Amino acid sequence: MNEKVYKTMTRAGASSIILGIVVLVTGLAAGILIIVNGANLLKRKSSVMI
User: What letter does residue 12 receive in the DSSP assignment?
Assistant: First the structure.
């Protein structure tokens, strides 16, 4: 019984670490894209305003 619990906890822990890494990378990539998009909008603002 203890062996089954140990294996379940090991899998759950590994899954949590992997999911955390995926969320971190996705969030970082999204943040970079938003910053770049905002910079482009600010740069082109003068061509829109007359």
Answer: H
